[in-house]
Amino acid sequence: MSAPALSSSNTSEVFASDDSARAQFAAAARLSAWRRRLLPLGAAILLLLLWEVSVVFFHIRPFIAPAPTAVAATLYDKFGLLIANLAPTAVEAIAGFLIGNSAAILLATVFVHQRTAEEAFFPIAVMVHTIPVMAYAPILVLLLGNGMEAKVAIAALICFFPTLVNMTRGLRAVSPQQMELMRILSASSSEIFFKLRLKSSLPYLFSALKIAAATSVIGAIVGEWIGATTGIGALIIQATYNFDSALLYATIVVGSLFSATFFGVISWLERYFLKWNVSQTG
Amino acid sequence: MSQIALDRVPPAPALDDGAAVRLREVTVRFTTERGVTTALERVSLSIPRGGFLTLLGPSGCGKSTLLRVVSDLIPATSGEVEVLGTSAAAARAARDIGFVFQDASLLAWRNALENVELPLEVGGGGKRRGARDPRELLALVGLSGWEKAYPHELSGGMRQRVAIARALVNDPKLLLMDEPFGALDEITRDRLNEELLRVWENTGATILFVTHSIYEAAFLGQQVLLMAARPGRVREIVPVPLPNPRRIAMRDTPQFVELAAHLRRVLETC
Ligand SMILES: Nc1ncnc2c1ncn2[C@@H]1O[C@H](COP(=O)(O)OP(=O)(O)OP(=O)(O)O)[C@@H](O)[C@H]1O
Ligand SMILES: [Mg+2]
Question: Which residue out of A174, A185, A275, A279 would a mutagenesis test of the B interface target, given it has the greatest number of B Cβ atoms within 10 Å?
């Protein structure tokens, strides 16, 4: 700071006004941050209220649509049941996520080193990807049985393709000059892979992982619809057949909360590992 | 050529009084689907050890290609390439060549210090003797205190300084620079020009510097190599009659103005 040179009363005034300006700015920033958080919350409460009032006012029967308070009560009363059914779904989704993404990352690594492999297998991957999950899910249940394996496989398959595409693109996203730099330094191909390609692919990988966090849960639930006695998917089917709409909605709330948490964890990891990435930090 | 040797006593061993870089009739052709491009046509030149040669020429005249041939990134189609008394490949493998690109090409996930350390981590670069201290190099390019800063936190000029420090970490005998300051504003460029000359005097390295700026070419170089395009060839080698060490103010001297005018006249016919 060059302040010591001008130690008149004048400077203290300058600093004072500077301080108050900064305080004003901080207050405005805080206000807008609160606005950003409170407005959607207020809107959500308003919608829930509207929903509650409509159910009461139009005499909507509970098995058609439950009031939010009924859903909340079910969440509370059947908490143990809901969590017991969340557990297998969570395990299937996370296992599928890990297996599907690992396979995609490995295959992308092979593709980047072996153009021929990419030319041979990428079209097959595209073809498999165009089959809707509802179509291949029964096939996998038939193949792997009614246990967790089929659900894990469905969750893995659903994660696989977006990660494969993004990871292949990410591993290739090095600038020609960075490659030339590595050549001048006589870097080996494993050094080029670990010190250059893998690092520059991370932003691509994480955007795929965030998609996969949500879709792996969908995969597990779809698998449970086809044949399962426990899990969020099974509970959804049971609640529907029993006309227990409050339980149905409560199950969906629990499933969504799990999805959102999974997504949040991946986002947090992304922020942690990609501190250097301007588009994330700035 | 001889006046350069007088200006700076080259630190090379007496045995090897050869040039740092010698090209004889070097031709480079690229074959693409659009046909054959002759990027360099029978280019011959020689840079004395410890020399500073600037390369000036219209876009597409093969300046980058010339640097790539010297650094063994691409082979010459024909002709002879001799770098530091041996082949380009051997000089590169011995880590005697440093390269600075137009965009600093820093690795975004490494801070300034880690970027400078990269050459020590790959290709067995750390086991070589004579590696320089990365922190000292950052200080040499005026970046002490910025070791922990990531590339996105640095200005364009600072990134380029990091790139220069990185190119110097293996203490190369030959520094190749491809329009390193092309994207910078004029004031930053002037400052970095003066700093580069200081680094040059400090390290005794031979520098081959590509630029589009007539003033930069004349201010930095002991000689200016003018190239013509289509096909890329040597047009003229102009010695720079300015005393060393150079000062920015020298650009106002009649000598400098005359030199710049001459370079421009030749360039217009390239
Ligand atoms: N890898 C390549 N494949 C095909 N043609 C190339 C390749 N590299 C360069 N060329 C061609 O060779 C010629 C010289 O290119 P070069 O990049 O050396 O020019 P330059 O003088 O560096 O130009 P600039 O000032 O624009 O950087 C150009 O016509 C260019 O199209
Ligand atoms: Mg170029």
Answer: A185
Q: Give DSSP secondary structure letters for chain A.
A: --GGG--SHHHHHHHHHHHHHHHHHHHHHHHHHHHHHHHHHHHHHHHHHHHHHHHHHTT--TTT---HHHHHHHHHHTHHHHHHHHHHHHHHHHHHHHHHHHHHHHHHHHHHH-HHHHHHHHHHHHHHHHS-HHHHHHHHHHHH-SSHHHHHHHHHHHHHHHHHHHHHHHHH---HHHHHHHHHTT--HHHHIIIIIHHHHHHHHHHHHHHHHHHHHHHHHHHHHHS-SSSHHHHHHHHHHTT-HHHHHHHHHHHHHHHHHHHHHHHHHHHHHTTT-HHHH-
**CB-CB: which of A177, A188, A277 is closest to B105?**
A177
What was the ipTM of the complex prediction? 0.85
> For the structural domain made of B3-96+174-183+199-267, what CATH number should be given?
3.40.50.300
For B11-25, B97-111, B191-205, which range has the lowest pLDDT when averaged over its residues? B11-25
Among A276, A277, A280, A281, the strongest candidate for a mutation testing the B interface, having the largest count of B CBs within 10 A, is A276
Best residue among B32, B61, B99 to mutate for probing ligand 1, ranked by most atoms within 8 Å of CB: B61
CATH architecture of A68-281: Orthogonal Bundle (1.10)
Q: Do the Cβ atoms of B175 and B208 come closer than 8 Å?
A: yes
- Cα–Cα distance, B5 to B50 (Å, whole number): 8
The whole-number pLDDT of residue A279 equals 58
Average pLDDT over chain A, rounded to whole?
A: 88
pLDDT: which is higher, B218 or A62: B218
**Percentage with pLDDT > 70 across chain B:** 92
Q: Which atom of ligand 1 is nearest to the CA of B28?
A: 12
The answer to pTM > 0.90 is no
Q: Measure B244 CA to ligand 2 centroid, in angstroms.
A: 28
Write down the domain spans for chain A: 8-60, 68-281
pLDDT in tens, B33-52: 888 999 999 999 999 999 99
Distance B100 CA to ligand 2 centre (A): 12
Instruction: Extract the tokens encoding A23.
Output: 């305080």
Are the C-beta atoms of residues B20 and B50 closer than 8 Å to each other? yes
How far lies A179's CA from each of A110, A191, A250, B187, B194, in Å? 18, 11, 53, 31, 29
CA-CA distance, B258 to A219, in Å (whole number)?
75
- Starting from the edge strand earliest in sequence, which strands make up the sheet with B21-32, in order? B35-47, B21-32, B78-83
Domain boundaries, chain B: 3-96+174-183+199-267, 106-171
In this structure, which amino acid lies at residue A8? S
